[in-house]
Design goal:
There is one protein chain. The chain has 2 domains: 276 residues, DD-peptidase/beta-lactamase superfamily (Beta-lactamase, 3-Layer(aba) Sandwich); 117 residues, Up-down Bundle (Methane Monooxygenase Hydroxylase, Chain G, domain 1). The chain is 33% helix and 13% strand. The protein is built from 12 helices and 14 strands. Helix 1 crosses helix 11 and helix 2 runs antiparallel to helix 12. It starts with a helix and ends with a helix.
């Protein structure tokens, strides 16, 4: 085993031990108690969201902050849709976009625990077309196969067509990748015909990797991605409103919409109207769901893989997923956009905090977000997580940073 893998695994075991003893953090000098929230600080959090709505920047939002398994702040603000004037409520359905990725990643790691999938398996074992994939516009041969670990940590060499103007990104953009009504198998075939942006294992490049991971799940399970996730993950967790499409007519008025001039174009990212049912089930960006559903998923992660007596993953698996797999010791470069930011690494489906950007932000926090504006983060140090659901592509980065800063300021020292 490579030295850096041993170090990651050792850290994962340490974090797993801390998860089991909820409310403490693994550290060399002993256990550190979780902090608590000040009501005055939480009020400033609420005031911030109200101001965003009052100044016309967003139509509405829902925020949940949960600590020690109980909500300490759960508020709905504004409207779910300015056209209908329906209020934001806890059962509002949001387009999750890339917050789908952690769900798909957990589903894949369930197969790893089942012994049906291994992190060092070549993707071509399950999707043979990837054995012949080339690299770069010059179509160079692979130095080594793409692995399942590469898909989970975005080091596969795959990319997105909207993340730059390089020759491979341009090929993606004009390839007709999203033309027609295709399924996951066809989407994988289309991607395999395109060149990789980099050699596998050399650079973190945000990509369609998790879409391909979804197809791997289908091949192994013999089910559609949604059928597998519904049976093994969503139903056991009670996530009854999470799906790739909103098929029930009674649920459609519950869908949140952004402001009319703040929408993300479907063809750019490959996602579509959640009520227009298609064959494609995008494991990278295709799901919709409620904050209450996602809270159950997030609490399961914080608990070390279980919820209300149902075991989804082992604590060591959760710790492994949320540890850094692209640190300096790996030699893996980071693309120019590198969404996790300079104080974070990336694990198997999650960004993870490796250094403090501001005082009070703990190491070991892990998270992800979606282009529609929603985000979540899990803080094992303080035995808490927070989820903000909103639909505002243009305001998401600014609001996430400012709101997260206020949340951490609300924690008493």
């Amino acid at each position: 085993m490579k030295r850096w893998r041993i170090e990651v695994f050792a850290r994962a075991l340490c974090v797993a031990a801390a998860i089991v003893a909820a409310g403490t953090v693994c550290a060399g000098d002993g256990e550190v108690a979780a902090r608590t929230f000040a009501q005055a600080g939480l009020q400033r959090v609420g005031d911030y969201i109200r101001n965003e709505i009052a100044t016309g920047k967003i139509p509405g939002a829902i925020l949940l902050i949960q600590q020690h398994g109980r909500p300490v702040w759960f508020k709905s603000f504004g409207l779910r849709d300015v056209a209908t004037r329906l209020p934001m409520t806890p059962d509002t359905i949001f387009r999750l976009y890339s917050m789908t990725k952690p769900i798909t990643s957990v589903a894949a790691m369930m197969l790893v625990e089942d012994g049906k999938l291994a992190l060092d398996d070549p993707v071509s074992k399950y999707i043979p077309a990837f054995a012949a994939v080339k690299v770069g516009a010059a179509r160079k041969p692979l130095d080594r196969p793409i692995t399942i670990e590469d898909l989970l940590r975005h080091t596969s060499g795959l990319t997105y067509g909207f993340t730059g103007q390089g020759p491979v990104q341009q090929l993606y953009a004009r390839s007709g990748l999203f033309d027609g009504d295709f399924d996951n198998a066809e989407f994988a075939r289309r991607l395999a015909r395109l060149p990789l942006a980099e050699q596998p294992g050399t650079s973190w490049d945000y990509s369609h990797s998790t879409d391909i991971l979804g197809r791997v799940i289908e091949v192994i399970s013999g089910q559609s991605l949604f059928q597998f996730e519904k049976e093994r993950l969503l139903e056991p967790l009670g996530m009854t409103d999470t799906a790739f499409y909103v098929t029930a007519p009674a649920k459609r008025p519950r869908i949140a919409d952004p402001l009319p001039d703040d929408r993300t174009s479907g063809p750019v990212i490959g996602t579509y109207d959640p009520v227009a049912v298609r064959k494609w089930e995008s494991g990278g960006a295709g799901m919709s769901g409620t904050i209450t559903d996602y809270a159950r998923f997030t609490q399961m992660l914080l608990n070390g893989g279980s919820l209300e007596g149902r075991r989804i993953l082992a604590p060591a698996t959760v710790a492994l997923m949320t540890s850094d797999h692209i640190g300096p010791e790996t030699g893996i470069a980071r693309d120019r956009d590198y969404w996790p930011g300079p104080t974070s690494g990336f694990g198997l489906g999650f960004a993870g905090r490796t250094s403090q950007p501001l005082p009070g932000w703990p190491l070991g926090e892990y998270r992800w977000d979606g282009v529609g504006g929603s985000f979540f983060f899990v803080d094992p140090h303080d035995d808490m997580f927070a989820i903000l659901m909103m639909q505002t592509p243009s305001q998401r980065g600014r609001i996430q940073l400012e709101l997260k800063t206020l949340i951490y300021e609300a924690l008493e020292k």
